[in-house]
Amino acid sequence: MWAMSAAGYRRLGAAGSAAVAAGGWAAGALPARDPWGIWVPHGPGVTVAAGVLAYAGLTALVVAWWGHGRAGASVRETLTALGWWTAPLLLAPPLHSADVYSYVAQGAMVLEGHDVYGVGPSVLDPAGLGGDAAASVGGNWTDTPAPYGPVFLVLAQAVTWVTGGTIVPAVLGMRLIAVAALVLIVWALRRLGRSSAGGESGALWLGALNPLLLVHVVGGMHNDGLMIALMLAGVVLARGGRWIAGSAVVGLAVMVKSPAAVALLFIGVIVGRAATGPLVRRVAKGLLAPGAIAGAVAVAATLAAGTGFGWLRTQSVAGTIHTALSATSDLGLALGELLHLLLGTDPDPVKATVQRLGLAAALALIAHLARRSARGRPDPVHALGLALLALVALSPMVQPWYLLWGATVIAAAAPRGRAARVVLVLSTALAYETAPSGSTPAYGFALAAAACVVGTVLVRQEAATAPGRDGRVPGSRAAEQDAART
Q1: For a disulfide at 294, which of 73, 201, 251, 299, Cβ 3.0-4.6 Å?
Q2: pLDDT tens across 46-77, in order?
Q3: Sign of torsion, CA 113 119 121 127?
Q4: Distance between CA atoms of 182 and 143, rounded to whole angstroms?
């Protein structure tokens, strides 16, 4: 298996991606109603067979990804593989998540003048604009206000207006946005990767070719892809000395999803390290200037969108929905239930307290990383990736694709380092956690656990071969080519 060429892995990954897409036509996150009759439910036998096909395809895609990383592929080979692996997903129904229906419904809400930050998609007329999308929204989100910024809501509004909210074209319109985000991610990874040990190819392999990104950004159309793309673009600009423009672009990323705000702190580190003059002035410039610019962009975007500043109060709504991947929510729930049994106390305040403590710990870690980076190590981009991983690990709500917040940044800064190996294993495992339908069945966690064990064993075996300082594993094609040149 490991002796295949990059071209062989490219073909294997394309076959896997095609199987994922084909399985999605029967086992994907199909809408409740499709007036075109294209994405419709099938019988249980077909659905189960399609689910097995999709998981088999996902496994082939993961194996191809690991092999492609070992094959020492060039930038051109990696980009070609990315095109091959992305193409089968473009016309597939939503995969591994039904969130796109919320996006379309929220776009319809903005068009109809509803307060998208005050009510959920259930307010829409079932027979009216966005009604089919609202009927397809997952139960937890039907009455949940939008936690997204006005920049994303304007894009969703535009897609809904152009397509009339009809399910198939509206979903494909949102996929166009996701593909545009992927293109921007590729652009940013190439530029940031040039200064990393793994180079452009390593950054693209871990960050863009990652099956977790392909399945959840292209297949599932999560707006995290757009947030990541704008955030990385802002960091590219800041690293190139254009920190004002970079801060403004990160401000747009925050107006998609708020976690991008973490990047402003590390752009501040870049600004402070490059500034001259007294220490106090440099620190103040780094801490205040990027945030002020991004804040101005946020205000301007909100006023231009006309959706109001309700996004300021809805950032915590997602945390009210329990997700099993959140360590702080699980710990808080267990502790609250234990105290309820022993003392009869209400478990909810206990859970909320543990969640707040987790966020406080995350903020402390982020501040620590920024301080260390300001003193010289680690590099600000690498530190940003670590900070985002810490935020995800200690967040009150964690979804599998949240790993991509930090994974893409780690890919850009250190695609062959220790953190990258953690990202490699977790990306592999979390790709299995949600079913093609978007549900989180028990077997999904079992598959994820098995993938995590296998991935950890493989990574340890590779580490035992004592890679050189460039991070390339001896025995890989890249290492052999370097040896031949010397």
Answers
A1: 251
A2: 999 999 999 999 999 999 999 999 888 899 99
A3: negative
A4: 30
